[in-house]
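## retry 2 of 3
previous attempt timed out at serialization; input unchanged, resubmitting
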Amino acid sequence: MQELFVKAGQLIGRSQKILCIAHRKPDGDSLGTALAFHYALTAQGRQVDLACIDEPASTFAFLPGIKKFRREIEPAAYDLLIVCDAGASYMTKYHEIHPTIFDGSIPVINIDHHASNDNFGTLNIVDVNSASTTLLLYKMLRFLELKITPEMATCLICGIYNDTGALMHSNTNLEVFEITGRLVELGGNIQAVAKNLFKTTPVNRLRVWGRAMERATVNEQGVVVTVVTQADLEEVGANSEDLGGLVDFLNSVPGSKFTVLLNEDEKGNVKGSFRTRRDDVDVAELAGRFGGGGHKKAAGFTMPGRIHQEIRWKVAPLGEPVLDAPQGSGKAELAPQELLSNILQIPEVKVG
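## retry succeeded, writing output
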């Protein structure tokens, strides 16, 4: 890592106009990493902009500088791109608007901790053993002897708290506690992070969580499964952002192998979230079968479609008829549904 940190310092040193990019549907780790970079490099006299294809959720409104994120960018205007916490190049979604963004014409620092990372950067600072990307950035900032301000410390703590479940997930080791403590000493507002990420729950969020928990079931293979539709969200006045943390809560069911949350979002997609507490289950491998990824114990995917209940909950591609295709139709687009039903063995979900 130290050799990579040296190369990152050299790339940054040759750059004056830098763009820090958070991944789509940004979480606390991606936002915290980008913001900490912004403050650190701005202090060096560089112009640093922040970008994300999706607007950050209101949960993160407390983060210093959060309103600086823009959605529209022109990559050619920058001499360095820094992609923060994106488990693969497609996670930024900017490649769909700017197909040449990662073709090497502009240097890219890819800093991340996901095993699914496809090393799309000019420089790939990827540590799959790091509990969060902000923790990895903390090490880089210290190595490069860059000052960590209270604002930066709060952003870095946000990423750690986000990806360790408030220091309760199995990836919370002694190093995580030590670095979190140092960030608090540097002025990080750990109370604001804990309150906004885990101790603030609007009534509409409670209502949609209630629906998901009412439907939750454990199949014969020990898999906890539940579903939230767009209709559920609309009826209780919630949105897909209000489901953050739900799959972690459901993952507390004793004796379960792993947990699956399927939910629709406002853009016509179905999102699958996986969690496990077991060492012999790799949910990142499962998510990879649907074009997603993540960590061994926390992963997910997104695909176009909607959720429909027939005998069981299933994912159907947008525009496809509600009924299953006849046997032998050979339609490739049905493979994800077969995977969800057969590989994950999703049981019937009875709604009373």
